[in-house]
Guanine deaminase (Salinihabitans flavidus), 432 residues
Amino acid sequence: MRDTVLLLGQTLSFDTSPFGTAVQDAARHERRGAVLIENGKVAATGRAEDLCAAHPQAARRDFGDGLIMAGFVDAHVHYPQTGIIASWGKRLIDWLESYTFPEEVRFADPAYARQVAARYLDLTASHGTTTMASFCTIHPASVDAFFAEAQARGQRVVAGKTCMDRNAPEGLRDTAQSAYDDSRALLQRWHGVDRLEYAITPRFSPTSTPEQLEAMGALWAEHPACLMQTHLSEQTDEIAWVKELFPKARDYLETYEMFGLLGERGLYGHAIHLEPRERAALSEIGASLIHCPTSNTFIGSGLFDMAGLIAEGPRIGLATDTGGGSSFSMLRTMAAAYEIGQLRHSPLHPAQLLWLATAGSAAALHMGDRIGNLAPGIEADLVVLDLASTPDIAQRTERADDLWEAVFPTIMMGDDRAVSEVFIAGRAISER
Ligand code: GUN
Ligand code: ZN
């Protein structure tokens, strides 16, 4: 059958999180493994020998020593910032005003939005990213563009109209009412269509009036199955500004909380400089914190407390934060997460990094039952990594004694050359 294919190679999946459980018990590695794909989903995983015997008729693709695993899940991006990635010399507020806002104004043109959405999805697929949660711009057409391009590629994505009604330039402000109306119309148009999910998206407290935050909270209460994405406590200057704008709030999180914008399905990007009260409230409600390591060093924001927060219990996802982040690659993002862990004296194991970039981010997006792993019934969004993609990596991998030593050089030094193939809903992108 055309829709059935057996992939052969090394395989990696997770039975549980390698944070709470020893790596050897949490991760499942087959040196010579197989993944059976049927109708866009993983039908079976196991030893190559067993699956080849059980499915002699299936078409086969043999990746040799290639590592077959879940495609990467990028839990916080701004696709409209594709064109301004790697812009020099500014910290958060200046960076937004100098680079980000002028670029986002251009998305008033639907043709431009469509062009950047296509470019962004092509670039990220070449880096092995199969799902992402993206901010769009204030323009509804920027959301239509992203969803239409993702739909054409068969991708599972989350996106929403970025809402801002103050502290943003002319051409980049909506109102409390129009943000509510436009977000609601987009949600009704796209949420649950094919593999697309709408996220209610107030940019961050400084660019929304209390009235707008209230309207976003009301919309979320009316559509509690939707995710809500925003930014939280990224830079100390930003936090001081939030204090000025919301003098009655005890802390940054409370500016969301008081308008109904703290919830289990909330995604809070950055979350670096948290007060004990904020940490406790986020953990208690089971919110998702999204770690954006290349962004946090690039914009000079600070060091996310992975070890401390993992122990407290909120869900944690990993993200590029394109284009505040300095890379489209989740390999580079894992490398940056490792480096930040080192600066905090708690290095992350390769299994933990790979889990964060797949199952962990999928769980943060409340999609862990559909994507982010290799297991029967999970959607077949996969990446195949070449662990010896370049001579510098290959000479190190050659000495490796186990999978973790073999994959770590690719995490630290790899790029899109390490991505041999990507499957989206069971279809190889090389055959598109
Ligand atoms: N805070 C508010 N908007 C943004 C954004 O676009 N990027 C980052 N990194 N932080 C933000
Ligand atoms: Zn962001």
